[in-house]
Structure formats: C-alpha cells, structure tokens
Design brief:
The structure holds two protein chains of two kinds.
Chain A lengths: L1 E8 L7 H16 L3 E6 L7 E6 L2 E6 L8 E9 L3 H18 L5 E7 L6
Antiparallel strand pairs in A: 1-5, 1-6, 2-5, 3-4
Chain B lengths: L22 H27 L2 H22 L5 H19 L5 H15 L6 H4 L3 H11 L6 H11 L5 H7 L4 H17 L9 H23 L8 H19 L4 H14 L25 H16 L6 H13 L9 H15 L2 H15 L1 H11 L10 H12 L3 H14 L3 H19 L1
Helix pairs in contact in B: 1-2, 1-3, 2-3, 3-4, 7-9, 7-10, 8-9, 8-11, 10-11, 10-12, 11-12, 12-13, 12-14, 13-14, 14-15, 15-16, 16-17, 17-18, 18-19, 19-20
The chains are: A alpha+beta, B mainly alpha.
Amino acid sequence: MRFMFIVKSAHSGPPPPKLLEAMHKLADREIKAGRMLDNGGLMPLATGAQVRVLDGKLSVVDGPFVEAKEVVGGYAVFELRNKEEALASATEFMQLHKDLFPGWEGTCELRALASPGP
Amino acid sequence: MHLHRPDPRTAAPEASPSAALTAADTHRAILGVWRIEQPRLITRLARMLRDVPLAEDLTQEALLAALERWPVTGVPERPGAWLMATAKHRALDHLRRGRMLERKHQMLARDMEEDEQGMPDLDSGLDDEIGDELLRLVFTACHPLLPREARAALALRMICGLTTEEIARAFLLPDATIAQRIVRAKRTLSESGLSYETPRGEQLSERLSSVLEVVYLIFNEGYAAARGEDWLRPQLCEEALRMGRVLTSIAAHEPEVHGLLALMELNTSRTAARTGAAGEPILLLDQNRLLWDQLQIRRGMLALERARELGGAGGFYVLQASLVACHAQAATADATDWSRIAKIYADLVALVRSPVIELNRAVAVGMAEGPDAGLAIVDRLMHEPTLKNYHLLPSVRGDLLHKLGRHQEASAAFEAAAALAGNQREHALLKRRAAEAAAASTS
C-alpha cells in the first residue's frame, strides 16, 4: 500500500540544522529499509505559482499568496503494510519536529494512494 | 502518542461516534511501531550477544512486553527507546541467568549497564549504522544449511518483522507449522555454530545466491496469489521487494542483488493489469498497458541499469529482468522487440540449460522470425524427458501449428495439452483452442 505524507505548517523559515540532520537520517534509514520511495522538501512559496480555474476563467497567480495560512513544506511517498504502520512512521517524524524545533506547529497528513486498475 | 485513546483533536470526522480503538486496532498500532524498530533491535542485540537466533528470541520478548503493557499505559512517547531498553534488559537477564561469567560477558554486561545509565540521546535510533549487522542477519536467516521454506519463514520474521501468525496466513499454513519451522531452523543454526557469522569475499557471492533465492521464493509465493485470498499473500510481493531494496543498500556492489530487485519491481508493475474484473488472469500480451505502474517500471529500469553498470549483464536475475524490461518498454504488444527477447533467452539457456527456458525461447523465436523457426525448436524439445508431462510444450506447439495453418495437427496438440493441464481454467482454455483449430481445419 502506498501512502503520501504531506507536511503543512504556518511556520515560515528554514528548520534548525539539528532537525534537518535528523530528518535526513530518518529518510536515509527509511530508504534503506525499502519503505520510502520518494521524498522532497519544497522551496518557499515565492518560488512557486498557482494556476487556477475560477468562475470559468483560467488565471495564473505568482507566489507568495497572501491568503495562504498553512503551507505545504514537504512530502514523502512510502510503501507500507497498512495505515497503522503509516501512523507509526508519521508519528516518529513529527516527534522529531516536536523535539528539535521548539515552538513549531504543523500537520503531517497521510493519505493512501489510489492504486490503478480494478 | 496514545494510540489506544481517542483524541478528539485528531479523530477524523468520518470516524464512527464510538471512536475508541478496539484491542485489535491497538495490536496493529503496536505492530506498526514494531516494524520500524525491529531491525535496529535485533541487530543491536545480535551484536551484543554474538548470537542471532538468541537476539531474535529476546527482541520477540520485547514485543510481547509491549503488547502486554502498551494497551494499559498507552504507547510511550519514544516507543523505540522503550523497546530497546526492554530488549537490552532481557539480554542482560539472559547473560546473568546463564551464569556466563567469563570475562567477555562481564565486559559486555558492564558496557550495557553504562549504556543504559547515560541519558538516551533523542535521535540515537537514527545514529545506528546497522548495515553490516543487517547483512549478517540476512545471511544467517538464509543459510543454505536450512531448508528453503525455513529460510523463507526466518527471513520474513527476522528481516521483515512479521509475526509467526502473519507468515502462516501468507503461506496458507497452520501457525504451528511455521512456529515449528522457525524453532527448528534456529536450533539448527545454534547447534551448527552458525549463529553469528558473516561470509566474506568469494564465499559471500556464493552465499548471496541462497539469499536471493529465498527473496525470490517469497516474491513468487505472493505473485501466485489469487484474488480474494488473504491480503497477506499478495503482500508477500511487497515484503520481498522491501527485502530486495534492503539488500541493494547493504550489498550495493553485487549486480545480481540489483538484478533481482529490477526483476521484482518490473513484474510488480503489472499487478493492476494482471487480472480482469471477475478475477480471471489476463495474459501479458492482452493486458491494458495503461494500467502498468510507470513509477515502478522506472525504479525497475534504474535497478537494471545499476546491475549492468556493475558488470552483471549476464547474471541469472539480470537476464530475467532484461526480459521483463523488453515488455515494460513496449508501448503496445505489437511493439515488443521479440528478436531481443529471443537473444536474451538464448543467453539464459546457455547459463542454466533449462528445457523450460528453451521452450520460452521457441515462443520468442516464433514471434521474431516466424512460426516455423519456433516450431523447429519445439520439435527438438518433444523428446526431452523432463518435459514429457509439461502441458505448455504441446500448447506452444499447437499455437505455432495453428499459425502455420496446420489446423488438424494444432487441434491434436491442444488436446494433448488439455489432457496434461492440472488447472481447470487452463484445461477449459486449451479445449476451446482445440475445438477452434478443429473447426478451422474443416472450413
């Protein structure tokens, strides 16, 4: 079963080096364990853009977006047995944030990927 | 983290009003944590005790302790540290109980106590480099001295962290059978003095083939699972893939390791296309290729490339992966490069001398050069004693004859194949083809 983890936070600014290092180690361990298939951190909103359809019209809005509250900061794709395993994994990841990034608040949303076919 | 208690802030809105987790949910939640922590626990204990089977026993005890305690206390904030401390205590108890008071063990015990007195480092679990120890674990679990089935059970248990019950369900066997296999295998290892050793150099490549064989056996068991069977069965493919990926990180310079991973990734990429809505199997050439998983194909192709870079182009698994890659890269069945497939089969036959592979080569040659070229190979195989009762031989022959317009002979070949087919669905298909060929011969 594949899961996507999406990390969102209202907090802007880079994570402290200790957290970055710990996340790097965690990702390395998970890749070596054959569970993590892909992951990535996202650059600030200013580097991005949104293409929207609204009222039947297409528009392009360059970042940063004033109305954005929680912003997606990174993602990962895992292959895991079940939701419990995904929860254990996401909890470990968020525990690192709790321990190494005091004051930080955010969400790690985990979603099962739809599999193709019947 | 208190997984067993419903938390109003995290409960999903669609959850039932009584969101309290059941005992079974808690059990699964604990196993979720266990799966992450298990490799580190067992490798650490193995290093301390210099005994892999014993380390496995004691990590299992730590799991049992968690299953007993956590439903009452809640899952601790750092479950990995809890499990490690518990497992180490068991190891310490074991050393004391066994009165193993030689100097070596005293030193070990002291090290461990000092270890425990220190404040646990927050991310100490992430600092463990377990590669070498894990490699030792893999080689021990897959020791050629053990029967193949025992190796598979032990590997799933020690490397993937599956419970005895899960392994039994996956192999459609009683729990007691698997438990016995594991106990016997561990006893064999202990009694043979093989409980803690890592092969090196030339011996490593030799032993590696035993490991790869086990991983592929587990994969094929999952691959053969029919739809509607226990979900743990097809799950074996994922377990094997995970083991394959682990191997590519701990034995990164072995081309066949990458070859096997490529073979498994590429085969798995077709999962969604392999069965129809009613669960009926769909043959490769009839599959809807839009359902093939392109991410997985890319991963497979990368692993294959790596194997070739390492000089392994002619290896057993690399060649098989190369075959599957030919299909994976063809956008339509018609675009399949059959000459290349025929060539790879020729290389495989040269490597393993198998009449079954030669029969596969005949099919590829028939597609690449025309049915008579394929038939020439099949006719040579007709006297092969090992294929005497192999239904695919007359089946392939019937197909080639049918394409050559020799319908009567084709019909007889399909009849012969049907008589040998063990499986109902295949029997019916071959009977139908025999009737079609017979009809074509009279028209």
